[in-house]
Amino acid sequence: MYHKVVIIGMGAAALTVAARLYELGISDIGIFGLGSGASPELAAINFVLPGNPYNDTKEKYAEDILNTGYQIGNKALVEEMAQSTVKGFELLVRWGVEFAKNSDGSTKLRHVSGHTFPRSLCSTERLIGIDIVNKIKNSLKEKGIKFYEKYECVKVLSDGNRVYGITVKDSEKNLENIYSEVVIAGWGGAGNLFGVSTYPDDIKGNTLSIAKEAGAELVDLEFLEFEPLVIVQPKGVFREPCPTAMLGEGGYLLNNKGERFLLKVRPQGEAGSPKTLINKEVLKEIKAGNGTEKNGVYLDLRHIDVNVLKGYPWFYNKLIKNGVDPNKDLIEVSPISHSLSGGIKVNNLYESTVKGFYAVGEACGGVHGACRCAGNAGSQAVISGLLCGEAIANTNLDQKMEKEFDIDYKIDKNIYEKYVPKIKEIAVKALGIYRDGKTLEEAKKIISDILEKDELAKDTETLQIAESIYFMLKAASERKESRGTHMRLDYPEESKEFEKEITI
Fold it and tell me: Which residues contact 139 (CB under 8 A, 6 or more apart)?
């Protein structure tokens, strides 16, 4: 099978690439994926709109991204993203996405973590990610774009210099090579390498290994983000992230003594607090014995007007359905592994170090740096997709395919069950919010020894998971400082020496 452009993934970034390519006259597109990843869970997306009431600017947006990323972000990528913010907004509007409005008809803007001004947009009735995915996906299908659902990319076909396509596995475990001169990774991050996470099951995390095998460089892999306000009980809302916009609406964070502990380090209040700061302070409270029953803290929304709470219907309704009334009950929250700020290293065209191999959304690194502004997962997905689509449309796509590849993929369930639980347990222990060099080195040694076992070659997915975790361990061990989401107990301070990306 052949397509002029192959896209891996069906989330916001992948769909935006396809949408922009279609607008620019390219329709021979094959989209392969197991699902839409974490995109339907996007609660907010950030844009600097013209005429906003806060005198917000694109320059200030870029400054916030770089500051929240602790100056590690690729400045060229960040500035281009900020300058393209209106283009991203307009693309979504063209494809039918509708945003919540104020009573006067203006677009509703909310204040979320990491931003100087309110610039976060949402949907009226549901998570904005659901609207983005459904509207664009359905429109693309109507226009004849080919979707191959329940197809997993297991290999990127490459000679190390240029890309030739991908190998896919269908729901029956049948394997097939799909040839193309352009492959776009929109396959999400690596959260599910860490046991309990906020990620859906279709994001496996083994893609770091797939990209590396294809010859791509990886960047910022040490910066694993932990979502700070994830509900830990009751069972029906377990793993449900609370929007950090709730802090912008006036929510408090309390320890078990009823103290607003963030005020000790942030006298201006909880609104706009960086996620890294929240995570650090929550863990301090737990360590000091001031945590809750499930090793968390309390989110207090009891004083907030019910109509404000109902403005987040996906969140409010789920709480009510599970017996939690946020106007009466404290909500128990705790940090849980979430997104990866790093990924495939790309240039300003979103092309990797392998010709024809592109990456968008959470599949690529460089924009977020050491930490991500809340809501920027959606913004970066949409804008990177838009810019990548424009870059590809301006290249020569009429190159002849001159190579064919044997299918090289092994499946052995016994090998998977023997090693993967152990490997993920090591990842959870070594790559948590707080890390230390000794544990990282021990973990690297264990994973390295596993990778040397001949029987690992019997199951390619196990090999890929082990390699992906090893790459993250390697990056974490090389960053001998604490910065953003990366916190080393043996190097508790930032170091000017490490104000740079680490490439694997």
Answer: 19, 95, 96
**All residues at 6 or more sequence positions from 14 whose CB lies less than 8 Å from its CB, including other chains:** 7, 8, 31, 33, 184, 186, 187, 360, 361, 385
Q: Which amino acid is at 196?
A: V
CB atoms near residue 108 (< 10 Å): 16
Query: pLDDT averaged over consecutive 10-residue blocks of the chain (504 residues)?
Result: 96 97 97 90 92 95 94 95 97 96 92 89 87 97 97 96 96 96 94 74 88 98 90 83 86 96 93 84 92 93 94 89 94 88 96 97 95 92 98 82 88 96 92 93 97 96 97 97 93 96 96
DSSP H helical ranges for 147-260: 207-213, 245-248
In the prediction, which pLDDT does 383 show?
Answer: 98
Going by C-alpha positions, the residue among 477, 230, 186 that lies closest to residue 337 is 230
pLDDT tens sequence across 37-77:
888 878 889 999 999 999 999 999 999 999 999 999 999 99
Predicted local distance difference test score (pLDDT) of residue 399: 65
- Non-local CB neighbours of 318 within 8 Å, separated by 6+ positions: 236, 237, 240
Please say whether the beta carbons of 281 and 252 come within 8 A: no
Q: Is-above-0.70 flag for pTM? A: yes
DSSP state of 363: G
Q: Please report which residue ranges of 97-181 form alpha helices under DSSP H.
A: 128-142
In CATH, which superfamily holds the domain spanning 1-223+341-399+499-504?
FAD/NAD(P)-binding domain (3.50.50.60)
d(CA 94, CA 132): 11
Over residues 178-209, the pLDDT tens digits come to: 999 999 999 998 877 876 677 777 888 899 99
For the chain, residues classed under CATH 1.20.58.100 are: 413-487
CATH topology of domain 228-336: Flavocytochrome C3; Chain A, domain 1 (3.90.700)
User: For residues 221 and 208, what is the distance between their CA atoms, to the nearest angstrom?
Assistant: 9
Domain 413-487: assigned CATH number: 1.20.58.100
Provide CATH 3.50.50.60 ranges for the chain. 1-223+341-399+499-504
